[in-house]
Write a structure and sequence with these properties.
The protein is built from six helices and five strands; from the N terminus they run E-H-E-H-E-H-E-H-E-H-H. By secondary structure, the protein is of the alpha/beta class. It has a single domain, classed as HUPs (Rossmann fold, 3-Layer(aba) Sandwich). Strands 3-2-1-4-5 form a five-stranded parallel sheet, sandwiched between helices. Helix content is 42%, strand content 19%. The relative contact order is 0.21. It comes from Oceanobacillus bengalensis.
Length: 161
């Protein structure tokens, strides 16, 4: 069966920073589920189905990646999938405190599932989906920051196509 990791996120939309973490996780684990979770604190631009479609396109060349979604607690989902780890990306030191709190809570919920932190590639350390959406909203140049089909999807959302 091999090792299975969950790479959770809202992915609204997927960025090259996300893709960097997902690709690197796919090199470490036998199988990786990239799971779209709905963050109640955020108002998504893309539906869960649209985000899953963009993720499938972005990861189509990674054979050990599965795209899924969930409305459950991450630790319940990970247990249901029989995962051994959760992979989280860190962009900057500011992410660490937030991620540490989440990891502590997750460990309380299920101490059997490890959380693995990966530092994002320096060229993507400033990237966030929120920043991408803000730039795209004003037709800013986001090439090289997201896959080309994501750039097109954003232009369509904001009526620039």
């Amino acid at each position: 069966m091999g090792t299975l990791a969950i790479c959770p996120g809202s992915f609204d939309p997927i960025t090259n920073g996300h893709l960097d973490i997902i690709t690197r996780a796919s090199n470490i684990f036998d199988n990786v589920i990239v799971a779209v979770f709905n963050n109640q604190a955020k108002s998504p631009l893309f539906t869960v189905e649209e985000r899953m479609r963009l993720l499938k396109e972005a990861t189509k060349d990674l054979p050990n990646i599965t795209i899924d979604s969930s409305d459950h607690l991450l630790m319940d989902y990970a247990k249901e999938k029989n995962a051994s780890a959760v992979v989280r990306g860190l962009r900057a030191i500011s992410d660490f405190e937030y991620e540490m709190q989440i990891t502590s809570m997750n460990r309380k919920l299920n101490p059997e599932i490890e959380t693995i932190f990966m530092m994002t590639n320096n060229q993507y350390s400033f990237l966030s989906s929120s920043m991408i959406k803000e730039a795209a909203k004003y037709n800013g140049d986001i090439s090289g920051l997201v896959p080309e089909f994501v750039e097109q999807a954003l232009k369509k959302k904001f009526n620039f196509l």
